[in-house]
Amino acid sequence: MDFTPTSTAHRRLAQLARQRFVDGLCAGLPTLDKRVYEFLTEIMGQTATQREMQQRRDAWMGYQAHRKAWAELVTRAWREGLAPQPVSSAMPLDGGLELVGEDVVENRLLASRMALTVAEHVGVPFDAARQRTQHLEGRELPSRDILRTETLCQRLVDPWLEVGLKREDMQLVLDPLQRQLAELALVQYQALHQLYDQQGVATAEELRARVRRPVTAGSSRSGALGPDSGGARLGRETPFPATMMAPPGGTGPMARPGFGGFASPLAYARQRAQGVMVQLRRLLTQPVTGYDMVQAPPASPALVHALADERVAADLYYSGMATLVEDYSPQAVVQVARVVRERAAEFKKKAGTDSEKAIIEVVALMFQSILSEDRIPPAVRVWFARLQVPVLRVALAEPEFFSDLTHPARQLIDRMGSCVLGFDASAIDGSALETEIRRIVQVIEQYPETGKRVFELVFGEFEKFLAKFLTERQATSRIVSVAQQVEQRETLAIQYTIELRTMLKDMPVREEIREFLFKSWAEVLALSAVRDGPQHADTAGYKRAAADLVWAASAKPNRADRSRVIQQLPALLQSLRQGLVLIGVTGAPQDAQIKQLTDTLAEAFLSKTASIPQEHIDAMARRLANLEDFISDETLGDLPLSADNIELLLGIDASAIHVVADNGAPVLDEMLAWAQQLPLGAWFTVDHNGASARVQYVWHSRRKQLHLFGALDGSSYLLQLKRLGLYLQSGLLVAQEEESLTLRATREALTKLDANPERLFQ
């Protein structure tokens, strides 16, 4: 990169700017500290699970004790960042891997996530500050310069751990912390520009003016963004290059050049995805393009008219008035790809601004990439091609399409693409999945509104369709039914145990009776409720038996109560035996439990202690009768899962599926979060018991404690949540696609534009 030679005065001015920048940050640190403290105080008073409330109390107490020390260390760290920094990056000079501790790596991941949010807020002011500072110093801004958001955040995160605060507590306050930091940094970047303006430093626009739009096909330009336009290549400006891949053979914890240690695949994928979107935004907001990423201007009249013509053509197509030739051969894909290119060329002729031409070109290149994906069956690619115009309308009207990876238009294409990547053409042609994709494309093309609303609607519809389609095979449907009931049964067992503990908390009930009710009878109630319903006569009888057992096991000081116990005992014991049979406790184990209960009842029969009032027993019986009205998921723990549970519940041979239950091994919280975010329909490779299989994610239970994957050969894998997290963490379950379809299409489009920037405006 070329820079104007600078004088000592210029370099001193740049350093003065840094000094004032840090002074302003340090002055605003008390406001940031106050926001964090207020947030912790606020959430501490909110209702949550007992574990969450305890974590929030501990976080509040810890921050209250260490907040002063943390603020002091942050101030010191920011001021130490003013020391001159080398231009070289963090990567070792020998090009090897930088091996650092796991805590350091986790800190860097946390700081990088924070930096992404801050960068979103201060992107334009920072980019201009970077260019003006580089101009003064005649060199690239050092990779660890205090002006960079990555450095700013890293020097905020490290002191948090140094003073004894927990990393999970910072994750708890991450949202308000990074938002407050972004606002603080924005003010200081703006103050820095005021200083530069007062000293007559060239503005970013003036520095970018050297970038000129090519006027001929033969003219050359150094990249799509020019020499000083913000760094077209990701390796220079983003935490991780968008094209960086895992090392060969590395399916487990991944070593990253210049990063070291363990980097979670989820965090790494997010970093890489954000890097691609940052590069795209820079491409579209360069001065020669002039695209407004905040509020898009109305499209040019000629372009609006051309898009309207396409809408009319679509109506004719679906009404049957146009010639309809359904050709889904590979040759048809080549033809529609040519149509995409020609259509883009015609639209660019109608465009009235360079920004419109740039958007048209980017969208066209994205669809060319999608259409060249051979793993998508030709029939689906033909229908995908028809989405070019609707997506272009959205892109022209909604800048967030180029910055938000969760934009519904992107999500829809990604989800449809990921579902069909695992099928060959013969499996897709004429299937319900192809029919649904055709229907969705037609709805989009003919929907009255042209914004993201239609994509939101059909994406929701496709999600519902997918949940049904992926489980409609008879074998899969049966497994899903069993898994649902397993989770329901275990959920109810936990809930019933909690409620029984609550009801008996203040009652003088013997420990033997408590243990029986909590460990055995809660299972009986749960299984009966799942099999027959919570209000079924058998379930109601088991609930009444629980209340009768508590009463029978209490002291009986008067003759009437003792006579009543003797009269009711045979029926009670018979009900208890029936319940134990229901959960598979028979023979000697059942006799042992019944004997312990009868011995306890005999002791209570002769006890002279206080009895349980009858009104308490009646209240317990009423609450048990309507127990389902009082229980919730908020206090549930983990579900036990085993092949025995499945066989017991419905009598299905568990050898027909691979049941992978939790085994108590530690798993990262981030892996659990990732496991709960997996999209239905995505394809993976699973390595289970030494055998590898290609599987599709087809179902998860309501609480996402159970997850089902199906292979093409009909076998299935039922994984419990923590074990699924472990499989992801260890590389035993690997996604076949490291990036989504539209993200890969965006990256490939940027690669072509970097090599041939002239096409952007031609």
Rg to the nearest angstrom? 32 Å
Distance between the ends: 26 Å
Shape designation: flat
Number of strands: 6
Helix content: 55-70%
Low-confidence stretches: 88-100, 210-262, 321-325, 630-639, 648-652
Residues in β-strands, percent:
under 5%
Helix/sheet category: mainly alpha
Question: How is the secondary structure organized here?
Answer:
Layout: H1 8-44, H2 50-80, H3 102-137, H4 149-162, H5 167-172, H6 174-198, H7 204-208, H8 234-237, H9 265-285, H10 301-319, H11 330-350, H12 354-371, H13 378-385, H14 388-397, H15 408-420, H16 425-428, H17 432-446, H18 452-469, H19 474-504, H20 511-532, H21 537-552, H22 559-582, H23 587-606, H24 614-625, H25 643-650, E1 658-660, H26 669-675, E2 683-688, E3 691-700, E4 706-711, E5 716-720, H27 721-730, E6 733-735, H28 741-755
Parallel strand pairs: 1-5
Antiparallel strand pairs: 2-3, 2-6, 3-4, 4-5
Helix pairs in contact: 1-2, 1-6, 2-4, 3-4, 3-6, 9-28, 10-11, 11-12, 11-13, 12-14, 12-28, 13-17, 15-18, 17-18, 19-20, 19-25, 20-21, 20-22, 21-22, 21-24, 26-27
